[in-house]
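Sequence, please.
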């Protein structure tokens, strides 16, 4: 048998040495990576530490809110503020129902952020080409009123989402109680008690369904919507809020007819307007930002 020829030894290819410039670039990239790994936790920690705690609100009302302070600053410290916080038991159940029906129909279902409404708002914004209003839950609106005021930025939105989650630890009843006591209701009135006295001369516990519907219709633009000089939009929105009672089987048709007549009388509307469109549980003018302009 002929002997096999000796196998040729393969030469190991040697990598060309990196140039000093490439070496410096690689080391620089590594330094930036290490710096980012150090900064991200520090920035996150600073963000979390900058957020207020909701726990002091578990039993006490705040002494003021960010939005109240903003209004006072806008008036150069001369704002006339009427504010009398009261327990939820002293706020008409009709106002509680109207606000939840109109502003946040899934209030008792979500955990501070309504993902369904948020997705719908994002889709609408993409169609329009700009970010609109809507999708804010009562919890998010409360966070804005308490701590964020009228600031508008992506960082504010992030803080709002985190704070809404923090507020949920207080429970739904306490969130609703706080919201109804700190929300702005026009002409220096803050909270349900001051608003009831300001606009109807009654305690918050005595509000009728029609009166509650009017107050709720003011919420998207409380400084512009005046029940004593009602705009067509205020009248329309108040009737829509009233009809939500019927949609949720909280009032019968007979009761709705009676309350509709009272609502028109309260607003000084002498001519019967056309019936409002079918009410929706998530109205388009639920506020995402405070004090929207009147259409």
């Amino acid at each position: 048998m002929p002997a096999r020829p000796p196998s040729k030894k393969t030469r190991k290819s040697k990598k060309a040495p990196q140039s000093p410039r490439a070496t410096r670039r690689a080391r620089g990239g590594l330094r930036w990576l290490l710096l980012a790994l150090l900064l991200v936790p520090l920035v996150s920690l600073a963000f979390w530490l900058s957020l207020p705690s909701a726990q002091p609100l578990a039993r006490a009302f705040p002494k003021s809110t960010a939005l109240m302070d903003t209004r006072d600053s806008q008036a150069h410290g001369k704002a006339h503020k009427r504010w009398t916080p009261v327990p939820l038991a002293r706020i008409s159940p009709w106002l509680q129902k109207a606000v939840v029906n109109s502003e946040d129909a899934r209030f008792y279902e979500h955990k501070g952020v309504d993902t369904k409404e948020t997705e719908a708002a994002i889709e609408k914004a993409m169609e329009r080409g700009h970010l609109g209003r809507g999708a804010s839950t009562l919890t998010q609106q409360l966070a804005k009123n308490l701590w964020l005021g009228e600031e508008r930025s992506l960082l504010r939105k992030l803080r709002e989402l985190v704070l809404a989650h923090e507020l949920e630890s207080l429970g739904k009843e306490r969130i609703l109680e706080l919201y109804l006591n700190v929300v702005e209701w026009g002409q220096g009135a803050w909270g349900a008690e001051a608003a009831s006295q300001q606009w109807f001369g009654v305690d918050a516990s005595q509000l009728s369904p029609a009166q509650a519907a009017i107050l709720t219709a003011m919420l998207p633009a409380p400084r512009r919507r005046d029940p004593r000089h009602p705009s067509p939009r205020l009248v329309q929105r108040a009737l829509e809020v009233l009809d939500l009672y019927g949609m949720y089987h909280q009032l019968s048709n007979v009761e709705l007819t009676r309350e509709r007549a009272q609502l028109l009388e309260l607003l000084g509307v002498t001519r019967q307007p056309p019936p409002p469109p079918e009410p929706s549980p998530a109205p388009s003018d639920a506020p995402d930002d405070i004090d929207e302009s009147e259409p």
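Residues 42-49, 282-295 have pLDDT under 50 and may be disordered.
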